[in-house]
Every structure is written in C-alpha cells, then in structure tokens.
Design goal:
With 502 residues, the protein is of the alpha+beta class. The chain contains 16 helices and 7 strands. The longest helix has 69 residues.
C-alpha cells in the first residue's frame, strides 16, 4: 500500500475512534504555542514545545493531556523517519509518568495513550509481532484504567491492527463486537457513521480488502438494524394500542367509545402498513444503489486495466513504423522514446503485484559508479558528492539504477554553475533504508509537486521530454514495496527520497 495513503488511513481511523476522555479540557499556554507552530517548517520547535507542555501537565497532575502532547511530538519524529528518537521519547515519558504520585487509574490512562502511539509506529513499520505485543499491553493497561471510553477505543485499535495485517476474521469479529455494543444501546447513527468512515478510508488508501470486508459487514448490519428498527416501531405501536385500549376500557365502556377506538386502531394500522411499505421501498432503493456503486467500482478497475493494455498495445504497434523513419530527427527520436516509455509504464502497472528479485549489493561502489555516469552532463563548477557507508544492502540493481540515474540526470540539467549535487544513502531502521538525491537548483513549485508522479497530466513538447520519467520511477519504487517522493522540508533546492524495505 502507498505509505502516505496508508498513513492517512491510520490517522482517519484513529481519529474516528471513541475519544479517551481528558482530565482537563483547558489547554495550557505551552500546548497552544506548540499548536501554533507549523511542523512542516519548524518541526524541532514544535516538538520541543510539546515536550515542555507534557512536563508542565505532569507537574499539574494532568497526565493524560500531557501524554497526548508526547504522542504528537512522537508523530513529528517518525514522520521524518527518526524512529529511534520517537521510541526514546515514549520511553522517557513512560518513566516520568511512573515517577508521579498520581492515582494508578490516571497513570494507566496516560500509559494507554503512549502505548497506542508506539503501536502506530510498529504498524507503520509493518512489524506485526512487535505491534501485537503493544496491542496485548494495551489490553492490560485498559483493564487497569477501568474506563469505558478507553475500552471502546481499544476495540477500534484492535480492528485497525487486524485489518492492517490481513487478519480479516479477527478484524470482523472485533468490529462486530463494537457494532453490537453500540447497536444494543440503540445508537444506530453512530454505528452507521463508523462503517461509512471505514469504507471511505479504505477507498482513499486503495485498500480493496478493507473496502470489501467493511462494505459486506455494513450491508449485513444495515439489514439487521432495519429489522430491529421496524421491530421497535411495531412494538411501540402495539404498546400504544394496548395502552389506549386499557385506558378507554377503564374510562368508558360504552359502545360508541369502542367504535371510536376501533376506527382509530384501523387508521393506526393503515398508517403502520403505509410506513412499512415506505420503509420497504426505501430499503430496496438503497440495495439497488449499493449494487450500482459496486458495479461502478468494478467498471472503473476494468477500465484502468484496459487502458493500460491499450497503451501498451498501441506503443508496440507504433514502434515498427517509427523505427523505419530517420531516428536522427529529434521528432522521430522523441516519438520512439515516448512509445518505449508508455509501454514500460503500462508493463509496470500490469505487473505491480509480481515479486521483484533483490540481490545483496555493495552500496558505495554502486553509488560512485552512478555519479561517474552523469559527470559529463554537469555544468561548470558543479560539485558531485557521494555519502555512503561501506556496507551491503539488498536491492534490485536494475530498478534502483534506473531511478537514481534519472534523478541524477535531472539534477545535472537543473543545477546551475558552481552548484552542488549529492547522493546519500541512509539506514532508517533494521529493515528500512533510503537513497537521497539532492541538488541546489531552483526547486519544484509547490503547486506542481502533487502531479509530477502522475502520467499524462499535461501536454508536453515530446522533443523536450514526455513527462513519463518520474511516473516510471514511482512505479518501480512501488513494485519494490518502497516509495519515491519529494522531501518537502528541503528548501535549498530539490531532494528526492527513494525509500526501500529489506
């Protein structure tokens, strides 16, 4: 799953969970100052203020609000892939909470917030066993906290864990427990909102499994809920009828009064029949609409597959004709390159689920060779720098070489004289590593960053490039179970980050 979209999914679902109540809804001045800082521009300042706010809350005995501040600071760490610092901060916060003289339940509620944030990091890192250990810890902490809102939040958290790691049966069971709990209290609108949010989040993240599971469960719950609602309405009406009959029998047993009751009951029965008929019509329309939506989704998926196949076939048919033309002409060469790029992009999209072979590769000579290949392309005075450790890492050399050469070639083109181009390699965790290509060019405008990885979004002069280079690189990164993106925090030019998972 795309990492950014996956992160979005987790944030939406965790925010939709039943909120763990705060000890004091009044925010401190330090927390307000932290929230006023733009974390994208000043992450260090924002983190520092949130940590100060945590300590201030602890001194005031408001542990849960303090824990929420630490959770926010932790998120700012791992958004920059600073996982060690994030885990260290959570550990230090846990120790400070333990050292306070607050009641055990208050401490447990604060530990729940910190442990839940630790769980989110392991889910983001796709460490199933570590995430499971944190989930088990959350269950113990929730028992100690003895708080109904925390128990409700735990059900949402369990569902997210199970769905994330493909354990649909367990996820369905937990989600059903949560839905049954709300349904038993007749809070139908809340259950409906939860299901709708889960379906919408699955669609946003492209998680077909979550959409299918939640959609199927939603339809089943909707049918049973409609039956419960109608049963409640009928029961209420029957009770009303019984009450009316008893009241009328007690007050007036005259024949005239009884006839009035009979007529009233007949009207009431007719109204009930009409209401049930209208309800049945509405239910049928809803069923037809949902079926139509499912067909629309399937049609869109089929259309995308056919489009990719069509582009691939078109490129293959054009190539023999183009190869007969004079390839020294810029226009002919541009058309040949476009046909090759279009076919490559289509093949990558059609084979995105296939496994990519990785081989153990010495990183330093691999990167130095790539830098030497672009040296003839750079402008006067441009400095080329390689920062790589002497270690081996599992990569697909063909894909990684293609991506880095494309990024370095672009950097050579847009870096002015006396500028600087840097290729870095960094380990971000036991199973995560990154290649970073930086330059001191003018940078990419913010309004264009969302579109540079999307193919066919603009009409290009093909002799100046077809705009498919970065979309191809993006697909290659995704096929390696990684990602390629722009570092928006880098302001000295442009920096691309290729993240891979061993």
């Amino acid at each position: 799953m795309n990492k950014k979209l996956f992160l979005i999914l987790l944030n939406v679902l965790f925010c939709c969970a039943v909120n763990v109540h705060a000890q004091d809804t009044q925010k401190s001045e330090l927390q307000l100052r932290a929230e006023a800082v733009d974390p994208r521009k000043q992450p260090n300042t924002a983190r520092s203020l949130y940590i100060q706010a945590f300590k201030d809350y602890c001194n005031k005995g408001q542990l849960q609000q303090g824990a929420q501040c630490v959770a926010t600071a932790t998120a700012l760490y791992y958004k920059e892939n600073l996982y060690k610092e994030a885990f260290d901060l959570l550990y230090q916060a846990d120790q400070e909470i333990i050292a306070t003289k607050q009641p055990a339940k208050a401490k447990a509620a604060a530990h729940y917030v910190l442990t839940k944030e630790r769980l989110q990091m392991y889910i983001k890192l796709k460490k199933s066993e570590s995430a499971k250990a944190q989930l088990n810890a959350l269950e113990v902490i929730a028992t100690r906290a003895a708080d109904e809102s925390i128990n409700n939040d735990l059900l949402y958290t369990k569902a997210i864990y199970y769905y994330t790691f493909g354990m649909n049966t367990q996820g369905n069971a937990v989600f059903k427990e949560m839905a049954d709990k709300l349904t038993a209290s007749k809070d139908y609108d809340k259950v409906d909102e939860v299901y709708q949010t889960l379906i919408a989040s699955g669609r946003k993240s492209g998680n077909a499994n979550m959409v299918a599971q939640s959609y199927s469960n939603y339809l089943a719950w909707k049918d049973s809920t409609n039956a419960l609602k109608h049963a409640d309405e009928i029961k209420a009406l029957k009770q009303q009828i019984a009450d009316n009959e008893a009241s009328i029998a007690d007050k007036d047993s005259s024949l005239t009064t009884r006839w009035v009751i009979i007529i009233g009951l007949a009207v009431l029965a007719a109204a009930l029949a009409a209401a049930l008929a209208i309800g049945a019509i509405i239910l049928m329309r809803f069923i037809m609409l949902t079926r139509k939506q499912k067909k629309t989704i399937q049609l869109a998926n089929d259309s995308n597959a056919l489009k990719a196949k069509f582009i691939s076939n078109m490129s293959a048919q054009l190539r023999p004709t183009l190869e007969k033309l004079d390839s020294s002409l810029p226009e002919v060469k541009a058309l040949l390159d476009f046909a090759n790029h279009a076919q490559t992009l289509s093949e990558l999209e059609n084979s995105k689920d296939e496994e990519v072979e990785m081989s153990d590769t010495p990183i330093q000579p691999f990167c130095e060779k790539l830098i030497e290949e672009i040296r003839p392309l750079i402008k006067s005075g441009v400095t080329l720098t390689v920062n790589t450790p002497k270690l081996n890492a599992p990569i697909n050399k063909e894909y990684v070489s293609h991506i880095l050469l494309h990024l370095l070639t672009n950097a050579a083109e847009y870096t002015p004289e006396n500028g600087k181009i840097t290729l870095d390699y960094k380990k971000r965790g036991q199973h995560t590593h990154q290649f970073l290509v930086s330059d001191t060019g003018d940078g990419i405008p913010a309004e264009k960053r969302d579109d540079i990885f999307k193919p066919f979004t603009e009409i290009h002069d093909l002799t100046k490039g077809d705009g498919l280079g970065l979309p191809i690189c993006k697909q290659m990164a995704l096929k390696m179970k990684g990602d390629l993106d722009i570092d928006t925090a880098y302001v000295k030019g442009t920096r691309f980050v290729l993240e891979l998972h061993a």
